[in-house]
């Protein structure tokens, strides 16, 4: 057990990871009945979002992927409004019109999940450029998957960020699979973070299912960015427990492979066992956290189920801005 972590921090990290897990399990349970639109679950990757976002304030920026529920919640979004959005209800963050792949909450610096593979790179880099131009101390974090690292937007954004020394951290959630293709089949190097060398910036590869390690490593890279020392790439090795999307038949991998990862590389189970073994917390204290979380989750479900759908005449609202005066 790390000497730098105390009881309160351990309970917070456990709560935040479990909060994401229970949200995703609820989404899976409600799929096909209450959940609207395609959905991609974050189960098995919770340590990354929680570890990284533990150092971010509401003023910092985050961009996400099509698998964005975990990042949204870790950045401080509410369970009830997030779930209402997936239900297609008008009380959701995007008034029920965005759904799973377009969750966003600007009030906490969450600039949005993105249905476009590699769509977050340039948005995060743009946010970091804005910070630098106004002389701020905020940072931007771009979460992305191993598959999108082979898109042109990755290289464009990293090159620009490195050239201009922008305060952005590119966090790769290497979960082993780009949809149905193994990462090892699409790249010439075993560690994606080594690409950082070509841009003259730091690149680090770590165990992304160790929340303490993610927290410690990301702290160093975020502090570096805040101090004006430029961007970096953090590759977090993890595993996608669920399919690429909820209806994915997963013919590209075996059930045994998935079960082995769930049993032995589950970030929440690993952390729970670690803090219990170290006598940092008790089973009773963790049970209290779990109980409080279930109450919060049940309240969120009730909120989502009882919220109204948008009215038909609201379909075209929020699509266009009003008339904008431009100085000539």
UniProtKB/TrEMBL annotation:
Transmembrane segments: none annotated. The keyword Oxidoreductase applies. Its cofactor is thiamine diphosphate. The keyword Oxidoreductase applies. GO terms for biological process: pyruvate decarboxylation to acetyl-CoA. Residues 16-313 form the Dehydrogenase E1 component domain. One of its GO terms (molecular function) is pyruvate dehydrogenase (acetyl-transferring) activity. Keywords: Oxidoreductase, Thiamine pyrophosphate. This is Acetoin:2,6-dichlorophenolindophenol oxidoreductase subunit alpha. It comes from Enterococcus alcedinis.
